[in-house]
Specification:
The chain is mainly α and 53 residues long. It has 4 helices and no strands.
Length: 53
């Protein structure tokens, strides 16, 4: 689960992060990044988390 990548950067992982990390595929990758950034995850931390999907 790529939510573990988010947690490794020190973020609290809750339902919004888990939902963002459940997106897959090309459009899911973009949605993952956008949702993580919207929850306060820095872009440079969102990219490796979404790449891990």
């Amino acid at each position: 689960m790529n939510a573990k990548v988010v947690a490794s950067y020190g973020y609290n992982v809750g339902p919004k992060v888990r939902k963002a990390c459940s997106n897959h595929g090309v459009s899911g990758y973009q949605k993952c990044i956008q949702q993580l950034v919207n929850t306060g995850v820095r872009f440079e931390h969102a990219v490796p988390a979404c790449n891990a999907a």
